[in-house]
């Protein structure tokens, strides 16, 4: 269902659209001159003239995304952001019209906005998902029309996957995602039911007993590690602490400079220290339960 603006918003949108369509088109040489003045001299007047002349592109693109049920004014705003991004990156020497270059940025900005706002759940994060989101309905309608039936079969899904260069799994998942909208977890099951959907969601978090056991296991492993470290030399302890137990791992080269040895020597000491740690900890594992605790 398309979003319907209130009267005041509709009036503002129409005024913006009318003004955009009345902006004069730029001749090629004047356009390039404006682009150079903005890039080389930071001439904001030149930037504003160039951008205003192509807001018609934003309006035209926004009309193509109206069917996703989002406010026209918001689509135009996002498109204007894309237009400004295009203006900041445009290179006149590439000998292409600004309109051609800006169209990609405008479309990209609007697509990102649609993907962020079409659903409360993020719909497309990968290139394959984005491609399917914006093309699946069109390709599906084409296939259903040619096959004179409703619904996609395996052949239809395979055809879409091949045309868009995506996996069949992605096609199936997006087909299911687009077939239903968002639903509240507080919605009642059945017309006269008292139970909500969220009442049937399984809680996959660990129970209190598992949390306590995990804390005990962590304490035991920490105790074993502390004892094993105490058996190492000062230099070996420094290497293990810096390479494996710090917030950021220090490189072999930096450690070599700190300890006054070569990078290769640090690597050898590290391997020897790790071997000592494994041997020390393995001595604590004297039963099956302790072995499971250390995993």
Straight-line N-to-C gap: 53 Å
- Share in β-strands: under 5%
- Low-pLDDT runs: 287-295
Oligomer: single chain
- Overall domain count: 3
CATH level 3 topology of the largest domain: Four Helix Bundle (Hemerythrin (Met), subunit A)
| Secondary structure tally: strands | 0
Report the principal-axis shape.
extended
Could you please describe the fold and organization of this structure?
The structure is a single chain. The protein has 295 residues and is mainly α. The protein folds into three domains: 7-117, Up-down Bundle (Four Helix Bundle (Hemerythrin (Met), subunit A)), CATH 1.20.120.1810; 127-179; 208-294, Winged helix-like DNA-binding domain superfamily/Winged helix DNA-binding domain (Arc Repressor Mutant, subunit A, Orthogonal Bundle), CATH 1.10.10.10. 69% of the residues lie in helices and 0% in strands. It contains 14 helices and no strands. Helix 2 (28-41) packs antiparallel against helix 3 (44-53). The model is unreliable at 287-295 (pLDDT under 50).
Provide the descriptors you would attach to this structure in a database record.
single chain, 295 residues, mainly alpha, Four Helix Bundle (Hemerythrin (Met), subunit A), Arc Repressor Mutant, subunit A, 14 helices, 69% helix
Topology:
Elements: H1 7-22, H2 28-41, H3 44-53, H4 55-64, H5 72-89, H6 98-117, H7 127-147, H8 154-164, H9 168-179, H10 208-230, H11 234-245, H12 252-259, H13 263-284, H14 288-294
Helix pairs in contact: 2-3, 4-5, 4-6, 5-6, 7-8, 7-9, 8-9, 10-13, 11-13, 12-13
């Amino acid at each position: 269902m398309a979003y319907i603006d209130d009267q005041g918003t509709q009036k503002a949108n129409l005024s913006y659209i009318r003004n955009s369509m009345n902006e004069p088109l730029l001749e090629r040489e004047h356009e390039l001159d404006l682009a150079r003045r903005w890039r080389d001299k930071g001439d904001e007047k030149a930037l504003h003239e160039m951008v205003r002349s192509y807001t018609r592109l934003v309006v035209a693109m926004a009309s193509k995304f109206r069917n996703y049920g989002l406010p026209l004014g918001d689509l135009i705003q996002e498109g204007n952001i894309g237009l400004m991004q295009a203006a900041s990156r445009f290179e006149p020497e590439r000998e292409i019209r600004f309109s051609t270059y800006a169209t990609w940025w405008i479309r990209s900005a609007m697509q990102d906005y649609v993907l962020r706002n079409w659903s409360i759940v993020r719909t497309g994060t990968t290139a394959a998902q984005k491609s399917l989101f914006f093309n699946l309905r069109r390709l599906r309608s084409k296939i259903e029309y040619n096959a004179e039936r409703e619904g996609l079969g395996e052949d239809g899904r395979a055809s879409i996957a091949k045309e868009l260069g995506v996996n069949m799994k992605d096609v199936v998942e997006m087909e299911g995602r687009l077939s239903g909208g968002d639903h509240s977890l507080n919605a009642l099951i059945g017309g006269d039911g008292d139970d909500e959907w969220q009442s049937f969601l399984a809680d996959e978090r660990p129970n209190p007993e598992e949390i306590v056991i995990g804390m005990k296991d962590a304490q035991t492993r920490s105790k074993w590690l502390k004892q094993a470290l105490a058996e190492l030399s000062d230099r070996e302890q420094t290497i293990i602490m810096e390479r494996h137990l710090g917030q950021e791992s220090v490189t072999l080269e930096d450690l070599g400079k700190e300890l006054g040895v070569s990078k290769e020597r640090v690597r050898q000491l590290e391997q020897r220290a790790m071997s000592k740690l494994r041997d020390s900890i393995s001595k604590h594992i004297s039963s099956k339960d302790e072995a499971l605790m250390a995993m």
